[in-house]
Amino acid sequence: MKTIIHKADSRGFANHGWLEANHSFSFANFYDSEKVHFGALRVLNDDIVAPKMGFGTHPHDNMEIITIPLKGLLKHKDNMADEWIPVKPGEVQIMSAGTGVQHSEINGSADEHLGLFQIWVMPNKQNVKPRYDQKAFDVNERKNKLQTLVTSIDENHDGSLKIHQDAIISLIDLDKGKVFGYSLKSKNHGVYVMNVYGKIIIDNTTLETRDAIGVSNTESFEISVEEDSGILFIEVPMTF
């Protein structure tokens, strides 16, 4: 088993006043040659956005973008619909940028900060027709069991959002004392594991809140839970 450990305090950090951003991988003014990507996973940003502030209209192309609100109210608008769409905690949003899309993201609250994860996955198809989707997931359905949020558009998996890559994004909330086994889809896949909160052990490595580990070259591994924990899994092809 091959592992890459990314402690929370090793992430790139930027404080723009209205935005506090933590970058797991090279992004904007943060560059680390050892943290450009993990397989097809290109970006994992952990953002806090001030009330009524946000990202003005900007372009994307040929990227699969997944947003997971953690607290507050996200509002999204793009040139496919040109209307503000609310996205709340418990919901997940995907956007296939494909041939090109313009979009905006703002904190829809006047008094509460917005917290979110934004994930970029490099696609396995170029110049597809742009598409947008979102879905609400019952947080109770990930209590001590894996809840699959996102899978490939080429897979017949009911209940998940779809992107143009052979990826699997999932969440689980594990109770203290549990031991959870994670099995990878194939030997070509790796999984980037972020401990959203709590304390876990993987391969004799202790991961606390926002610590992460990339795991590859294995069929499966175990997670020992030292404290009640929430875990994000981003499984992607390592070569593509």
UniProtKB/TrEMBL annotation:
Binding site for Fe cation: H58, H60, H103, E105
The Quercetin 2,3-dioxygenase C-terminal cupin domain, residue ranges: 150-236
Domain of life: Bacteria
Family label: Belongs to the pirin family.
Cofactor binding comment, as recorded: Binds 1 Fe cation per subunit.
Keyword NADP: no
A Pfam family per the record: Pirin
Protein name, UniProt field: Pirin family protein
Organism: Confluentibacter flavum
InterPro entries: Pirin, Pirin_N_dom, Quercetinase_C, RmlC-like_jellyroll, RmlC_Cupin_sf
Cofactor: Fe cation
PANTHER family membership: QUERCETIN 2,3-DIOXYGENASE
Pirin N-terminal domain boundaries: 11-121
Swiss-Prot/TrEMBL keywords: Iron, Metal-binding
A molecular function GO annotation: metal ion binding
Keyword rRNA processing assigned: no
